[in-house]
Write a structure and sequence with these properties.
This protein is an all-beta fold. It is built from no helices and ten strands.
Length: about 120
Amino acid sequence: QVQFVESGGGLVQPGGSLRLSCTASTSSFAVYSIAWYRQAPGKQREQVASIKSRGGSNYAESVKGRFIISRDHTKNAVVLQMNELQPEDTAVYYCNVPKVSGEPLFTWGQGTQVTVSS
């Protein structure tokens, strides 16, 4: 079973930036598509960005133009650069391997809390 570790969250003011990192306990990390998800209080978890093994990416409309997903092959990680953060971005952020439909491939990690507040 692959375990994910998300890091980089914190408290930031509206308009600020954060950089999240996702690593996993697998030597095959680079061959997987990886997605970032988030879950706000009282809401369902949603996918916000994904990146394929060779780098093609997709974004939810709510974050398009503000978030950038990328791979750091030197650190075997997937990074989510979040800019122009707004209070509605407040959530716990997770990463995982997405499937075409339904739940992702592996169990969820603990996530990293992002709070956007003045």
